[in-house]
Structure formats: C-alpha cells, structure tokens
Design goal:
The structure is a homotrimer of 342-residue chains. By secondary structure, chain A is of the alpha/beta class. In chain A, 17% of the residues lie in helices and 29% in strands. The interface between A and B is large, with 64 and 63 residues.
Chain lengths: 342, 342, 342
C-alpha cells in the first residue's frame, strides 16, 4: 500500500505542515523510521526524538512545537490517529470466509447464526449456539451447550468447555482456555479429594482474552467476567472469581478462588489477589503486589501483602538507607557509652 | 433438576431444622443465593451471612448456632456435603462414549484398554498404551511409546510427547503440556548450545495437572511426579524435578531444574524453588517466595530468598516503621550533639 | 542400548581408570545411579557424591581426584561429554518422515522446501513458505504469508499467526504462540478501545521457544527476537519488544511493550521489564526483579524496582536486623531521656 500525506491527513482530520505530496508506504516508531515511513509522537517525553527521526512524516498533537525536516500532520489525538493510519496502510488480514470447513466436526443441531465461519479441524459439541458473524479459528474445541455471541473472533487452538456463556464481539487469542476445572480439593488424611466443579463461566460483551490465558469454571454458580474486561496473555482466573466492567489485567496476574475485582481496576504484571478478597473500583495493583485483605476503591497498592503505594514507597526508600542507619545506631550507642564512661 | 430438602438431607445424612418439603433447584453462595437455591456455611467466619441469605436452605455443621428464616440442614462436614449436593443437582457432563472417533489418527499397534474413548482429531503415535476407561479429548497429541493408565480424563488440546509414563486416574486440563524439552544449554563463547534432553517424565496415580501447565522431560533419567500431586494452571515443572506425594502447587509456581519438593508440600501462587534445592515434607511456601537453599520439613517460608515465615513477618512489620525510625535516629543524633555542645 | 566403557571412552576422548569392559545400559545422576548406569561429576561442589554413587562408571574432569569403587573416565569437559554419551545411549526419537500427512489442510501455492514434514491435522494458510528439512508437528496452525526457515523443529499444537518471519534451525516446544495481538488499548471514558495490532514478529536463526510461551506481534513494525535467543516455558514477549542475540529468559519472565533486552542478557524466573526500558548487554536480572528504568550493560540487578545486586543484598541483610534495631533505638531514646533526667 502507498498513500500521500495529503490523503492520510484527510482521513484523520489533520492539518499538514510541509510537503503533502510525499508518498508514505509504511509505519514505524520515531527511532526506527526510514524514508517512506510515517511515525507519531504521543508522549511529550519523547518530543526530542521527532527532530532526529528519519520518518518522512510525523503525526503530532495540535499543541506540539519543535523542529522537523520532514512533514508534520497535526491532529487532536496523535495516538488514535496513528492507529487509524495503521489500518489504512496495513489492512487487517481478510476475515475468513463464512461457512464450515469440511474437516470441522460439528454435532447435529448446533445453532449457527448468519455468516459464521468455522475453520479446519474445529470440534463443536452438541447444544452449542454461535451468533452471527463469529469466526471460530482452526483447531478450536467448543464443549456441549456453550453459547457464543455475535461478531466474535476466536483465534486458532482455543479450548472452551461445556455450558460456558460468552457475549458479543468477544476476541480470544490463540491457546486460551475457558471453563477448565477450578483447583478445589478437600483433605482426607494426607490425600487431596477433588471437589466437583459443577459451575460455569459467564463472559460479557466486548471482552478480550489473551493468548494462553486460563479461566476456570466455578465450583458451583459462575465465574463472571463483565463487559469490556481486557485480559492479557498468561492470566489466571480461578473458580468463582468476579471481574467487574472494563478491568484490565496484565500478564501473569493470578486471581485466587472467589476473589472479586472491581470495575476499571488495573492489575500490573505478576500481581494477584488472595481468595475472597475484594478490590474496589478504579484501584491499581502495582507489579508483584497482591492484597490479602480488601482494597478500597481508587487506591494504588504495592508489595505483598499489598500496602498503599505511598506507604510502600516510603518504606522502600528508607530501606535503601538502612545499611547506613545500622551503622549510625551503632555509633550512637558507642557515643552514649563513651559519655557514660566519662 | 429439582429435589426436596428431605431428599437432599437423606443423601447427605443431614438433620433438617425447618420445612423439608421446600423444592431446591440450584446452588449458590450465601451472598448470591435466591429462592430455590441451597447454600452452605463451612467457615465460621462467614456465619453472619446465613441470617441475611436468601437461600431456601442452608447446610451447616452440627455445632452451628444462629438465626435463619429458611430451612437448615445440619451435617458433620458442610463443605463435603455441599459438594455431594452439587453433584446431585448438576450431574457432571456425560462421559464421552467409548470408541475411536473416525477423524482420530491412531498408529497401528497402539494398545487400548476396554472402553477407552478417543476424541475427534486426536493423534496417537506408535507404541502407545492407554488403560481401560481413559478418555482422550479432542485434538490431543500423544507421542511414541507413551503409556497412560486406566480411568483417566485428558481434556481437549493436551500435548504429551514420547516415552512418558502416566498412572491411573490422571486428570489433565486443557492445553497442558507433558514431556517438552528441558531448558538446558552449555555456553560456547557467546552462544548457547542445546544439551539433548533424552530423559522422560513419570507421573503417578491420582495426579491432576492444570490448564496450560507444563512439565519438562528430564535431561536424562526422569522428571518425577508422585501419586496424588495436584498442579494448578500455569505451573512450570522443569527437567529432572521430583515432586513428592500429595504436594499441591498453585498458579505460576516455577520449579527450576533438579529441585525436589517433599510430600504434602504446599506452594502458593508465584512461588518457586531454585535449581537443586530440596523442600522438606509438609513445608509451605508463601506467595512470591522462593528458597535458594534447602528448606527443612514442616516449615513455612516467605520472601526471596525465602526465610522462615515469622522472621520475614517481623522484618516486614519493622519495615513499616522504618521511615519514622530514620527520623528518630536523626533526632537522637541531634540530641546527642546538643548534649555534647552543652 | 548397551555399550562398554571402552567404547564410550573412545567416543568422548576419555582416559579410563578402572575396568573398561563394564557394560553400560543407562544414565543417571550420581545419587540415583544403579549398576549398569554411567554418571558424571561437573560441579566440584558435589565431589563427595562420587564415592557413594552406585554407578558402574563416572565421567569426571581431568583434574578430579578422589575415591570411587567403579570405573572413572577422565575428560576435558565432563558435562559436555555426558551429553554426548546420553545421545549415544538414548538416541533421539526418529525424525518424522518427510511428506505431508493426508489429514493436513494446506492451502494451494504454499512453498515447501525439500524433505519438509507436515504432521496430521496441521493447518497451513495461503502464502506460507517453509524451508528444507523443517518439521511441523501434529495440530500446528500456521497463518497466511508466514515464512519459516530450514531445519526447524516445531512440536505439536503450536500456533503461529499471519506474516511472521522465522529463521533457520528454530525449535518451538508444544503449545507456544507466535504472533498474537499485542495488549494495546486507548481509553474512551470508562471503556477500552482496541488499538489495531498491524505489525508482525521477526525471529532469527537458532532460536528456541519454550512450551506455552507467547510472543505478541507488534502494534506496527516488528517484535524482534535476534539469533540464538533461548526462551523457557511460559515467557511473555509483548508487542514491539526487541530481544538481542543469545539472551536467555527463564519461566514467567514478562517483557512489557516496547522494552528492549540486550544481547546475552539473562533473566531469571518471575523477572520482567517495564515498557520502553532497555536492559544493557550481558546484564543479569535476578528472580522477581524488574527494572523500571534502563539498566546499564554487565549489571546484575535485584528486586522491584530493580536495584544493583549488592545494594539490594545489603538492604536485605540489614532488613533482617531491623526488628532488633527498632528495639535498640528505643533503648537509646530511653537512655538519653534518663541521662537528661539525671
């Protein structure tokens, strides 16, 4: 694909400063760009990178000021505009054709909406319902009586077990697992006895589930993921967890059984929450943090057990001074001993 | 399904206090229950939730005392009884039919016990043996000369490589991996040279392996998982690891090469053990902890490098006081300076 | 297989001390070995284990001194020699036959080099190129226009999406994912809006990717993994990450978007790097560490946020003394109060 700066600017409501006849063939970051590339500046922190960039054109926010030898396109939101340009220059791969691949193994009576696409080697058990326009990638498994909404995109080799309910516009990346048994046992002497995991999983609309992420079914009742939740790769959602609307969980987040994550919560990499803990709406968990008690809303927490961010930061800053503090205390003791000796 | 409280009580050896004709149709936690649900109280900590619950019936332990407007069923172990009721009200999905799906690719000479079920698109290489009653879910791969015992349940899209030995009543959740190469290299200059991983994996009876968990084959000899071990989702078992009977490992546990985990050890989320370390029987590793030296038996450890729990707790508690302590030491120094000045 | 010590010694350029007619049938560690086994001592720390080993023969380094009742084989590098012996005694499984399994679903026009092996149920989309001698295991998915070099080994149930480029001699363990969407969103009010992930992944030669590891495609441009990189199981490589030559990343390493890892960096289990951070060549990240700022080359760092190793160690050592230090400061305050009172 190739477009002129002029065409691009029109598509993103931009104002051009410089030559608008330049041909753009690809996209790159300010650092990596070469001639023919378009780039963008979203974070003012990297503003100096514009001047040294070899991009032919750079999209910036309206209030940007600086030098650049190529062409500038000013817009209201450079980040969003760049995403639009990306879709223009590199069109997403063609959506797989509607219909069922001859190698798919689909039980009798499965209900498929209009224009559903079922890829090669897909296995769909009896009682399944799939909404209009949803794509089921190669090698996926969908268990008995599971329901998936419309306009979803389920990439290859995803496994979903029985009686799961999934809303509209779901995106599930490759290798993700939905509806596996929860990790529940009782002890008999030294042995673990499995507790039947007879519950299920309910997932809302506009949810995205990352590659190799796992979502366990409930012991009874439901593991619930509300509308708009975004899960990165390698997230673990245990049995009976509840995740509120628009929460965003990053790689290696571990949610223990029956914990409840509020709406718009953000959990950083390697964070977690203990069983039955509630994290309030809009709270943020820093990397490697995990609360063992409830977290109130709009709170940033750090460390394990998780503490309020500022408290944790002060302790950690003081910790760096601790080796010297030990010496200072020893010196004080000696001074006081000496004083007493006098 | 629907059952009366009377029928339920008979099934779990319970004593009814209240109306035993109530119809029960579903299960829920005390908080989530509505009319028609049965719930239970296992942890006395949540005792107050019984009174406010909208469940039609609640199973409690014999020694429970309190108010409830619905029907109470007293039993010896409310938790276990509730699991029984769950299985009565929500029967587990029908076991897949015995036999081989026509799309399965099974090598000549593979030995299958009675009533084995081989799902669609399963691939089984030559020399494999599978015991009576075991289910191999859709899309599973089983490598050359691997042996799996009887009455196992291997869910869809599980991958098991060559020469692995697995005992009876195994449960493997979707996406799990058994027998991948260990992460072993030697250095030649700046480059890594792969060490052949010619060993295998030996798994005992009554083991459960979570979704997307990985178990590497040994460099030579065996990676060993003893009877009764339970692995949650996303557990990493490296080459030549030994896990003792009934150990239970939670999500994101990382076992480095050749470490050895004692019987009945419990490892919490995001914990781990360094290479060649031994963790003694019945020891417990707290979240985010990892020992770099051997841990004696029946020891609870925290932090990295892991320390005895109480020592770690005392340090962490003191850490919260540290910012003030820094100020107190500065004040002491000033007081002493002033004293000297006098 | 069975070989005499004499034959083994010839294969590894070893000097025999003891009976060289002994038959060797298997390999084991010094601790686990029984009669008929050969073992080795690489780490002088375990030297005492030679004497008590029940192995029939032990390979040691030339400078080893000690007692052993069986046969000793002295070589320059016992570790490397033992790997050679492992391959002699336990030949790796036969490489799958060249050709395409009849159940594979391969698009028209796919370009396959000589002696490529395509396993059962593999799905290969249009425009794919695969180099000579590469093996694609059962159930793998390879997306449109992806290119894979020669002599690669891709184990079963691996998923690779469109437009990915992979070099020669790649090894990909089971369940790994390449080319999934990056985790990128902008916020509109309370909701997350997906940023199209139109970039791709470029992987060099001699790379190994562990089981269930995930590598996200770039938002635009490329996620890059240079020659000789080794990734363990459960590694997360986010969009636009760059990993330099011969870096080695262990289980549960999390690389956030656009971070850049230098050549020959080593990252331990559960470590990570924040977005846009650069880790210099030859640096080492200890377990549970993650830098939030750039790390200079040849630096060992610990903790979160990551600090130089020695600084971190001193703080942690002092932390163990902290509970007593709190008491010592209180005692000092009292002594000073008493002094003032006098």
């Amino acid at each position: 694909m190739s477009m002129t700066v002029k065409d691009i600017a029109e598509n993103i409501d931009g104002v051009v400063d410089g030559d608008d006849n330049v041909e753009i063939t690809s996209l790159a970051s300010l650092q990596d760009a070469v001639g023919g590339d378009i780039s963008f500046l979203a974070n003012p922190r990297y503003s100096s990178a514009v001047k040294s960039s070899k991009a032919s054109a750079v999209i910036v926010n309206n209030d940007w000021k600086g030098d650049f030898s190529g062409t500038i396109i000013k817009v209201q939101d450079a980040d969003a505009a760049f995403s639009q340009v990306a879709s223009l220059l590199i069109p997403p791969p063609a959506k797989p054709e509607a219909g069922m691949h001859p190698t798919a193994v689909v039980a009798n009576g499965v209900k498929l909406g209009d224009a559903v696409s079922i890829g090669p080697n897909v296995v769909i058990e009896s009682g399944v319902t799939i909404g209009a326009g949803t794509v089921i990638g190669a090698g996926c498994y969908i268990g008995q009586d599971t329901t998936i909404g419309s306009d979803g995109m389920i990439y290859p080799n995803v496994s979903i077990r029985e009686r799961v309910t999934i809303g509209d516009r779901i995106i599930i990346q490759m290798g993700a697992i939905v509806g596996s048994d929860g990790f529940g046992y009782t002890q008999e002497g030294r042995k673990w006895v499995k507790i039947p995991q007879v519950g299920t999983v309910e997932i809302g609309d506009d949810v995205e589930i990352g590659a190799n992420t796992t979502i366990d079914r409930a012991r009874f009742g439901k593991t619930v993921i509300e509308n708009g939740v975004k899960l990165d790769n390698h997230v673990q959602v245990a049995h009976n967890v509840h995740i509120g609307e628009n929460a965003a969980l990053v790689a290696f987040v571990a949610l223990a059984g029956s914990c409840s994550i509020g709406a718009n919560v953000q959990m950083a990499g390697h964070s977690g929450a203990s069983g039955h803990v509630h994290v309030g709406d809009y709270s943020v968990l820093m990397p490697f943090s995990a609360p063992t008690k409830d977290v109130t809303e709009k709170t940033v927490v750090s460390g394990f057990p998780a503490r309020p961010f500022m408290q944790h930061q002060k302790s950690q800053a003081a910790l760096l001074k601790l080796p010297k503090l030990v010496k200072r205390v020893a010196a004080l003791e000696k001074r006081l001993d000496d004083l007493k000796g006098e």
